[in-house]
Amino acid sequence: MEIVGFQFNKINIERFKEIKGQLKIDSNIQIDSIEKEKIELFGEKPTLKFFFTNTINYNPDKFAEIIFKGEITTLLEEKQNIEILKNWKKKKIDDQIRFRLFNFILNRCSLKALQLEQDLNIPLHIPLPRINPDQQNQNTRDYVR
Question: Is 97 a residue whose pLDDT tops 90?
């Protein structure tokens, strides 16, 4: 599966009240619909658009909420497209495809959410890296892919 397009269709962030007590942040991603589409740029190759909603809720008592709605355009083999659309009738998506889509959504939405959270003075939904005094002389980091 090749991801060939991504766009936000709606971004909504709202702070409802002042934070009090313990804060719990819940995140949810769901695929709302899947549509087959023909894009001239890719010739005869059919594409699928996955429409999604990613919600970040700040609880208890709904302190704040961020909602992202958007779409991801993918390029797959015709067999895969048929199988995905067939499974979608039962609201199921193959784990391998779902994980790839969800990770892509998380990456794109998390970056945007961090900026919006800072603008509205809402606690960050994910922790940022911090430097400890013990790590003062470490200049390298290990990355896992």
Answer: yes
